[in-house]
Amino acid sequence: MTLSALVLCLGVLAAADTEAPPAPPPAPPPATPIDAYRMPFDLLSERMIGTAAKPLRFDWRKTRLGVGVVAGQLLELNNFESSKVGGVARFVVGGFLAHVGLNGVWASATPSSDLLARTPYRQAGRPGRLELDLGLSLPIAEGVVTAWPAFFPATEMVLLVTAELRYLFYAGSLHGASASETLKTVLTPHLSAREQGNLEARRLPGMHIDPARYAALVGLTLDIYLHAGFFLSPRVLVAVPVLQGPTGSDLGLWWDVAVGAGYAF
Amino acid sequence: MRARWLPLVLLLACSKVPFIDVNAAFSLAEAAWFQDEATLFIFYEVQAEQGLSGDTVMELSYRTDDEVVDWTPLSELATVHQHLAVDCGPFSRCGSTSVRVAKAPSAIKLRLRYHPLGALSLGAPLHVNFVRSGAPWSNRSLVVYGVFDAANTRVQWRARHQFPAVRNEEAQRLGLRRLFSVAQQSYGTLPSDTDLTANVYGYGFAGVCPADFSPLLGADPAPTRQRAIFAPDDLALAAAAAPVVCALATVTDAGGTFVAPALARKNPRVRAAFPALRSPIQEAKLVRMLLAPCHRTVSDVHLAMQRQRLGITGSPDLCLDEVSVANLATAFATLLQARVDEERNTGHDMILLLALHHDETTGALSNAVQAGLGQVLPAESQKSSPRLAGAMVFDSYGGDVGRDDIRNLVIWCPARSASAADPKTPHNCAIAPDSLNITLGYFTFATLPILPSRQKYLDYVAKYSVANAGQVQSLTCRVPGRTPLSDDVPIGQYGVATFFNGESVTAAATDAFSYCAANDKVPAVYRLSTNPQPQPLAALPDAHALNPQPAYALGLVWDFPFLVRLQYQNVFAGAGTAFSVTIPFGIASDATTYEGASLWQQDTFALAEVLLQCDRFCDHPTFDSAGVYNPQVSFAASYRDRCYRPLFPGVGEGGFPRDP
User: Fold this and answer.
1) What are the two backbone dihedrals, phi and then psi, of residue B530, each rounded to the nearest 5 degrees?
2) Predicted local distance difference test score (pLDDT) of residue A58
3) How far apart (Å, rounded) are the C-alpha atoms in residues B271 and B507?
4) Could you tell me if A138 and A155 are in contact, meaning their C-beta atoms sit under 8 angstroms apart?
5) Are B19 and A196 within 8 A, CB to CB?
6) Helix (H) or strand (E) holding A196
7) Best interface-test mutation with B: which of A77, A121, A255 has the largest number of B CBs within 10 A?
8) Could you give the 3-state DSSP secondary structure of residue B231?
9) Do the chains contact at B19 and A121, CB–CB below 8 Å?
């Protein structure tokens, strides 16, 4: 099919599906019956010639709940290593994708931090902990894509901008605190003196415990849905220092690189 | 613009977390070498703002004439004494050690190595003290002494660390524990030439305990590493009068053991010098009298009010229009004395309630009445009970008591001055002397004193009616009883000290007293048989120390002989006026007021915590209110003007008493 023929067909479809165009300039009387339907190509190319249905492989907006597991690494730009494993639950809220995650984080020393421990210096870091994530993602691009290898079926891919608030809980840090003290401190932006004192025994050599209890992160998430509802979700977030003042965090712009996998119902 | 920010964002995003200095510093670094013990003690404490790793080690180096000890972790040195691992918190490291060093060390150095495998360390600014050979109580690192419990029957033996720059409890906090024991306990009295002026704990005051001391039967306390341990048994009754218990104390050092005698001195035996001064207070018999004209009327309304206020129902006792003013004083005095003598048979002390109803404004009449009172009251008030103790006069006009001889015996109502604060007549009627008057548009509000002058009363009732003038519901008087031994001594112009019944504190010349001003809420005084002038109780301890007397009489100071309790109905009255019609109304409330001396509201005046008396071991050391034993603070010398509130050790209170 040539380009002119395609344009002509689209023009016919547009004429059938859309409302009547504005009145054309007065034309000379038709010579033949077909002349009444002739239209200049320039005019035809500038008109809305029709809409097509959005191609979908999996409509994630119609899901009620998605659950998955998450694994990743926290790149805190210090000499300690932190890895995490956890679970996530995802919900569609309006046009957004909300998620709640709970992760266990393991911090470990490195040869560099072991050498640092032999000096009178410390580096900010965080011992092992539990993290509660509350996030919201906005889809900015999506479509059906083909996969490799070729026998793999086409998938639905969604690129989302993600914002997340993270709450850090250090088990045992409130040992010895009364119930009232626990209630007073458990939601404060930074760790109390008692918590930091209790964590001193658990910190890694050379580590200065970062006092922040909250972190704010933003980044990109790429959701890849299979036709049946399975999804794969790599994600890169960076901690933004909007809470650095109240939390007193000594860490800079650290990174959270993770991948999740699960099923959307 | 966007391109300009991009490098900064990338720089922030990729910047590493910086290193932080832990800011470690020694807050304590002390070394002391004791020649007699051949021991070098080390005490240290390091603070670090960012905490210290558990791998940090303390290292010591020194040299002597015989050896050179290079940097060695303290944990690898053999210690002379026990040193506990101390938890000083997450941001601190502290501890102590003791090393056998026979000869004087030099080049003593202490440092903190941040890690056993690391090369970085922090040198300590070490202070080194040398204690050469000398007396055990001053030249050894541990002294042993004894104290007694509250009952003076059980000895607690104590050890006290004694370092040049580290306090006793600090050495304990830094982990040092010393083993000590006592044996061969005996009791007796120290020789008179024993000088404990410098050796305040008495440790090693001699080579052995005095030979004339009697041995105590029973078990010795077990050796302990705590700082204190009680003897397992109470002292025998035979040791009750002995001021001192002596025992041989054994302590350890690098050379083995060291034995020296230790002393336990009994606590001063202290009791209340006079637990309570008691003067029975009675409800007085009220003698009511009315002096008024009998053959003319001044004001029936006012007279009725005066009768109601004082509870007078009969006809006038003395007709003022039948007696001239010149003869009034004698006539009134004669009548009053007769009434008092008549009432005396009831056995109660009496108070005269006198209503004076007249219209004589020159003051001659009230002066005559006061003269009559002066003929009776001063003599009557000095008698033993039953007697006429005083008078309360309700005059028709404001007045005051002008005669000195009855000024402290008579309440005159209403007072002449509105404030009733005339210093010459402190007990003139002060019962709501001022009336309140408020005008708000068509309404006026007022209150009336319960004992007003006639003019004020008549003005009030004309506007607010008699029904809103209030009324007395009860009037009672309390009076201290006097005995045949009671003796009054004037103090100044208005005060009187009364020694009621020969109450006195008896004392031996060796006794000592302590006066506690903080507990003194009683106006008590004392006097000597040789000097009748009362003295404040606070002066008794010093007076006895300087010039001991066998007895001190105790008395109470007062400024008025009785207390009037008046219960009455007070009315807040109002009146609304419109179109020439006034409608009064009032809100009544009950009120109680006291006139006279509030001292007589009680009949027992506690002195148990005001004046203490020591009758044995008064020059011995004392415990303070925090339980700290003060060997240089004796009861006799230090507590004359201080409150003595000792906190004694008790069995079962643990082995680390407060001993800074």
Assistant:
1) -90, -15
2) 83
3) 12
4) no
5) no
6) helix A193-200
7) A121
8) coil
9) yes
How many angstroms separate the CA of residue B16 from the nearest CA in chain A?
5
**Least confidently predicted of A61-70, B121-130, B429-438:** B429-438
- Give the separation between CA B136 and CA B203, rounded to whole angstroms: 7
B363 torsion bin: left (phi>0), alpha (psi -120 to 50), beta (else) = left
Structure tokens at B31: 């070394």
Give bridge partners of residue B263 from the DSSP assignment: B246
Ramachandran sector of residue B628 (left: φ over 0; alpha: ψ -120 to 50; beta: rest): beta
Task: Tell me the per-residue pLDDT of B57-86, one tens digit each, with 9 for 90 and over.
Answer: 999 999 999 999 999 999 999 999 999 999
Q: What is the enclosing helix (H) or strand (E) of B253?
A: strand B244-253
Nearest CA to B273 out of B6, B514, B110, B525 is that of: B514
In angstroms, the CA B88 to CA B434 distance is 69
Share of chain B above pLDDT 70, in %: 93
Q: Tell me, what DSSP letter sits at residue A39?
A: -
Q: What is the residue whose two structure tokens read 């994530």? A: A133
Give the amino acid at B441: G
Question: In a 3-state reduction of DSSP, which class is residue B170?
Answer: helix
Sign of torsion over alpha carbons A112, A113, A114, A116: positive
- CA-nearest of A185, A249, A221, A217 to A96 is A221
Q: Residue type for A106, please?
A: W
Question: Nearest Cα to B522, choosing from B481, B555, B565, B564?
Answer: B555
| Contact between residue B471 and residue B461 where contact means Cβ atoms under 8 Å apart | no
Residue B47 and residue B22: Cα distance in Å, rounded?
Answer: 9
Among B12, B54, B114, beta carbon nearest to A119? B114
**Range scoring the smallest mean pLDDT among B74-88, B220-234, B485-499:** B485-499
DSSP A86-149: EEEEEEEETTEEEEEEEEEEEEE--HHHHHHTTTTEEEEE--SEEEEEEEEEEEEEEEEE--SS
Distance from CA of A231 to the nearest CA of B (A): 30
Please judge whether A124 and B21 are an interchain contact, meaning their C-beta atoms are less than 8 angstroms apart.
Answer: no
Please state the ipTM of this predicted complex.
Answer: 0.74
C-alpha torsion sign, points B551, B557, B561, B562: negative
